[in-house]
Each structure stands twice: as C-alpha cells, then as structure tokens.
Amino acid sequence: MPAKGMLLSSSPHSFTPVSTPRIMLSVLIALVPASAYGVYLYGFSALALILVTMASAAAAEFVFRKLIKASTTVSDFSALVTGLLLALTLPPSTPLWMGALGAVFAIVVAKEFFGGLGANPFNPALIGRAFLLMSFPAAMTTWTLPQGLIVGPDAISSLSLAQGAVDTVTAVTPLGLVKSGKTLADVGTYLGTHSDGELLKQLFLGYHSGSLGESSILLITLGGLFLLGIGVIQWIIPVAVLASTFLFSWVLGMNPVFSLFTGGIAFGAFFMATDYATRPLTPKGQILFGIGIGLITAVIRKFGGFPEGVTYAILIMNIATPFLNKMRVKKYGFVPPVKPAKPSKEAAR
Amino acid sequence: MAVKTFKGGAHPPERKERSSGLAILRLREVKLVVVPVNQHFGAPLQPLVKVGDNVKRGQKIADAEGRMTVPVHAPIAGVVKKIEPRTQSNNSEGPCIVIEALPPPAEGQPALAPEELVDFMPPLDPFACSKEEALARVRAAGIVGMGGAGFPAHVKLAPSKPIAVVIANGAECEPFLTIDERSLIERADDVVEGVAITMKIVNAPEGVIAVEENKVHAVPLLEKAIAASPRTRAGMKIRVQLLKTKYPQGGEKMLITAITGKEVPSGGLPMDVGCVVQNIGTLLAMVDAFKEGKPLIERGLTISGGACTKPANVVAPIGTPVADIIAAGLAQVDEEKLGMVIYGGPMMGVAVPNYQIPVQKNTSGVLLLDTVEAKHYDEETCIRCGRCMRACSCRLSPALLAVAVEAGDYKEAEKIGLLDCIECGTCSFVCPSHRHLVQRFRVGKQILRALKQKEAQNAR
Ligand code: SF4
Ligand code: SF4
C-alpha cells in the first residue's frame, strides 16, 4: 500500500493550462505592434516613456504589497499591462516623471486600495490617465508631430493655427482640429492629403499626431483580433463600442468613419473596455456597457470641453458594471416563477 | 450523421488512448470482497446476514423496505467474516459486509455443486412479462444508475410522465475512462438489447444510443447490432447519435439537450421532457438480470492514470479491493510515481487515501495519477475573466454565484441557480486563478437545502 500521503483534494482534478500570467502576457504581446509603431513615430523618448511607466507600475505594486505585507503579485504581469496601457494613452512628449507618477497612482490608488487584481472598480490605466489630465492639463494636451511628418507653413497659416505657426514640432490632433471648428477637409490640408479617402487611409494607418500608441487603427485592430483569436477577450464589447460610436457620431452629425479612425476609441474598445475587472461579466450587460461607452464618447466629443472623451466614457460605464452584472442570462431550464395567486380567505385561515 | 452537442463546456485532456484499445479482462480469483451495505441514492439498508453465515454468489445480503431502496447481493460465494465500517469510494466510512471466499475443497473432498454456490433468479422475458414484474426484477437485481450517484433504476424506470425517448449514455466524457467504450464495442448486442428492454418498460417509441465522436469507431458495430436485433426487426426504433467530444457531454441534462433540443426544467427530472437516460453499465446489468437472472454483483471499470504502468479495462466483482485487481496482475502501478488515487474520473471523481477501497456499483474507473498529474493549486483572486461563465453548461454565472455563496447570501445564490448546478466542475477546470468554484457550490448546496428544510419546518 502506498505509505506516503496521497493528495486528497476535491474534484475536479484536472486544470486548464491557461493561467493569469499567461493571459497578461498575451495582452502585452498584443500591444507590441502599436507600441513599436509609437516608438517608430516618436523615437527613443517614446520607448523611454513606455519602459519607465511599466517599470514604475510594477515597482509600485511590489512596494505597496510589501508594505501591507500581502503576497507579491508582480509575477502575474498585470501591473506591467496597466503600465503599458497607460503609457500608450499618453502624449509622446509626456515627461518621464509624469508617466511614472501616473503609473504609481494607477496601481496604488485605483488598483491596490481596492484590494488588487480583480477587485478594482475602475480601469487603473484610465484612472492614471485621468489623474494626469486633471493635474497637468497643459502637458497632457501638448502633442508632437511624428518624425518625418512635415506640416507645411502654408497649411498652418491657411488654417490660422496660432500655436503651430512658429513651432512645427508642436502639433494638433485631428480630433483637436475638428473640435476647434475645422472641417475634415482642413484636417486633410493639415496632414497634406489630397482627398477624403487618402485622409481616412492615413488616419487608419496612424500617421498623425496623437497619443503614443493610439493612432494606428490598423495595428490596434490587429492586436485586438489576436486577443479575440486566442480567446483572451470576446467580441461583444469591442463590437458594441465601435458600432455605438459609429451610430451616435452619425446621429450627432459627425463623420462616423472619422470618429472611429481618430482618438482613442479603437484602443479603448479593444484594450480598455475589455479589462476583466471593470467590465460586466454577463453578455447582456456587456452589450449595454459597450453601447454606453460609444454614446458617452460621441456626446463628449460633440459637446464636451475636451476633444476626446473615451477615457471618461469608459470610467463612467465602469460605475454601471455592478448593475449591469445583474442582467444575467437565463439559467439552463429556467422556469418563470408562477405569480402567487392572491391568497383567498380559505387559504388565509 | 449530424454531430450534436450543447452550449458551453470545456476540453480537458482526454488521455483515453492509454486504455481504449484494451479488451475487457475478467478478474476470476477473488479471495475477499468488502461490500458496502449502502450503494444507492436513498434510504439506508439493513444487513440480512450475520458474521459466520455462508452466502452463495448472488444471494441477497442487505435490503430494506421503502421505494428508494435497492438490495445488495453477495458477489462471491463465501463466509461472512465481518460487518464493520470501512472507507468507501466516496472517502467516507460506511457499514461493509466482508466476505471471504470458500477455500478450494480439501484433498479427496468433492467440489460443491453449483446450486450450493450460486443463487441467481430464474430468467425472465422482459417482453413477455408485465411492467410491474419487470420493475420488480430490476429492483430485485439490485440495479442502480452505474454512472453517477447510484439512483435506484426501478424508480427511474417508473416515470409518472410519458416517455418519448430512451437515451443510452455512451458519451463517457470523463477523461481516462474507456470502460463504456469497450462495452459498446464488445457487447454491442447487449447494449441494444438493454435499450430495447428500457423502451419496453417505459413504453417509449424511440431509443437513441449516444456516443461522443472520439468513439466513432464503435458506431458501425452498434449499427450492425441494431440491424440484427430481433427487437428492431419487430419494429422498435433504435438509432445511434454522434455527439461532439466535449465535457460534460455525458451529463444527463446536456445529453438530453443535445439530442432533443429541450432543457430539463429547473428542479425537474428528465421525464419532464419525456426522456429516460441510462448508463451503459446499467443497461448491461439489466440484460444480465433478465437473461440470466443475475443480480448486479460485478461491473466493468477502467484502471488508468499516469502512475498506472499497465492500464486495463476489467470486470470485477463488486466489493473487490482495487489493490487485489492489481495484485492479480490485471493492471500495474508504479508506487514511486503514485501521487493521487481517484475513484471515478478526474473531473467528478473522489480522491481517496489508497486503492484498497473496494469497487462499488457506481465505480466507473480508478485513476492512479502520478505526482505530476496530481496537482493542487492554491486559490488566487478572481480576475473576473468570465471563462467560468462561458463554460458553465447550466449558464449559472459561477463567478457571481461564488460571490453570493461566499457572502452567505443564499437567497441570491438560489436565484442565480445554486440548486441547478450539476457539479460537473467545468468552471473550476477553466479558471485561470484556480478558484474553488464547484467545491464551494457543493457545500453551498447542502447548506441551502438545510436552510430550506428548516424554513419549511418553521412554516408548518
Ligand atoms: S474563471 Fe476564475 S478568474 Fe475567471 S471569472 Fe471565473 S472565477 Fe473569476
Ligand atoms: S457552476 Fe456547476 S454546473 Fe456550472 S460549470 Fe460549475 S459545476 Fe458545472
């Protein structure tokens, strides 16, 4: 008879090979194309910003958990994901210390204060971004031109862009141009394209000013499709976000394709709105969640003070998540409860 | 043939190749059996024998009054040595009757006549007798559902609603297990006959033998058996249905949904959607009970697992310590590598401290896992990935259900469907954080049932 102790755990005794670190690692991989393109557009400083932000996030998590004497969780890579997501939403010229500060805020305040991985109600990367946007509005809305993209003085004067007139490095994002009352044709002039089709193509490929990793719709979509393909994310939320952004932009009189190809909506749809902890778990809840994000984004872009609204749209819908989780699918074999008949006097006795 | 299935589920590694090609071996010499008195789902039995009694093979040794009872029979001829609590395959202690085989006759003594050794019932033609007689025979033969909790077969076969289809559950979706597969291949005629007998008893117009795609090679054999069966020639309708290889395809509810498209209503039974589902082993036991008058005193099981250097499909008397099957050379184990012993499959089976524990009426397999396979993970926090929600074939939102159970909110848990959980363990299998989901639900279900009982008592 076996002398040694046999393992006596409760079934099941078989386990999936998919682990949390593996999931987080696949998100990092999915973000490589968009990150690499950001580095290609903005050079070494962009790479430095990415690395510093990621390292700060991981360090913040490590130190905080050490301080509260909790188990170390850095090896699950989730802090690195938060750091990278945050870096990719920042303007490329963000000072390194600011990126680091945002990462620490995201991890400590938005994640660990609420109990760490899985327990946070708000998307930590977006909280980090919102925190920086409120604290340093100037730095967070200063954009740089991608390397090699020359905006001619003609365009600048003809569009009477005050701040860009003397400084060809400081730039305006396409959404920013539209917000200041410019037309799509003006954006085309600014980017030096000759037709609407050419403009949309350039926007899709991402060769324009914007956040570090948010501009190339193509590469973001590729990363998103990769995550969909390996089952790390599901299609409901991205599709709902993109469809509703398209629809509500159109309803509000904006060019719907332009709306999808600019700002952080694609990035948000695939990488932010799908964040496990802060999105609803139920399919019906996810549909409404996505629709809400699209609606709020369109409304902020149209009427808000900022040109872009994806960050706030997702954070606002994060609040709704616990309620949306109540919209469960009907369980197998669901039988609608019979309404109790009014108790007759007979029964009452 | 269109391949059917259900929504959700998962794909645990199958590991069936180790034993699927091995013909069923029969354990002949058994020196001792340890027969648990209670091997069915229902009211407890009383032993009918005392220590020192001689028993014949097939003699009834425990029984009780009441609908939810099923007698137990002596699997071998011998002498009752002890009646005492022993560890059973569910890893809890229960009364067992220990029978030692009669020694071979001494030199010069004549061997005992078969009548003195064997006590079977007379054969009975299920197609000629009344329904009551048939049900009485099923009970008298000690037949229970041999794939799961051991539900009394005579109760299942007396539904209070009309039955449209009898389903033979040949899905065998638990990894490692191949005994049903071997039975389908080696006893195809009897499987068909068992379906026909069941159809006759419950008066069903259709019979379906359901097998997963990984057993597609059994289909021609089954179809041949169906074509050759005197029952189908007499007009009974029996067919084979292929199902996707997916866990828990063999769960009664999932099987019914895959085949009929209907869902068993919450809190209801298969008969509520006109179905009776029978395990393959149960069908064979029924055939034996009618044809030979033989009660359920032996069963087939798979012995496998990474520490099992010689896996096997065997038929052994109920009550045989699995260690004796191995000692007889039918299977082999590498003691050095052994890390875990499971009675049943890896998804729903019970881990036990040793393989001395006897084979029971519902033991479909014994797994001897090696130290690499015998994993235990500490729970990590739920990352809310939703994998469990998509995998749960009962659509129960396990992540949310676990929150409710942990918080002690049994009202909410019941609303989500705690009592509908079939305890298949798919949710725990897919969880990247190794949450003990089904483990919580098992305990939670008992607590909720107790709460409801109390409530009902208070209301009275
Ligand atoms: S599979 Fe595990 S980690 Fe994922 S939601 Fe379910 S319980 Fe949470
Ligand atoms: S909740 Fe129950 S029915 Fe659903 S997967 Fe888990 S164990 Fe199976």
UniProtKB/TrEMBL annotation, chain A:
Listed InterPro entries = NqrB/RnfD, RnfD_bac
- Record keywords: Electron transport, Flavoprotein, FMN, Membrane, Phosphoprotein, Translocase, Transmembrane, Transmembrane helix, Transport
GO CC terms = plasma membrane
Q: Name one GO biological process term.
A: electron transport chain
From the record, give the transmembrane residue ranges.
46-64, 96-114, 126-145, 205-228, 309-325
Pfam families registered for this protein in UniProt? NQR2_RnfD_RnfE
Flavoprotein among the record's keywords?
yes
In terms of NCBIfam families, this protein maps to: rnfD
Please identify the protein, giving its name as recorded: Electron transport complex subunit RsxD
Species per Swiss-Prot/TrEMBL record: bioreactor metagenome
Name of the coding gene: rsxD_2
TrEMBL record, chain B:
For this UniProt record, give its keywords in alphabetical order, as a comma-separated list: 4Fe-4S, Electron transport, Iron, Iron-sulfur, Metal-binding, Repeat, Transport
Tell me which InterPro entries the record gives: 4Fe4S_Fe-S-bd, 4Fe4S_Fe_S_CS, Ion_transpt_RnfC/RsxC, Nuo51_FMN-bd, Nuo51_FMN-bd_sf, RnfC_N, Single_hybrid_motif
Q: Would the keyword Transport be found if you checked this record's keyword annotation?
A: yes
Q: Give one Pfam hit by family name.
A: Fer4_10
List cellular component terms (GO). Answer: membrane
Q: Name one GO molecular function term.
A: 4 iron, 4 sulfur cluster binding
Q: Where is the 4Fe-4S ferredoxin-type domain?
A: 373-392, 412-441
Output the PANTHER family linked to this UniProt entry.
Answer: ION-TRANSLOCATING OXIDOREDUCTASE COMPLEX SUBUNIT C
Q: What is this protein called?
A: Electron transport complex subunit RnfC
Question: What organism is this sequence from?
Answer: bioreactor metagenome
Gene this chain is encoded by: rnfC_2
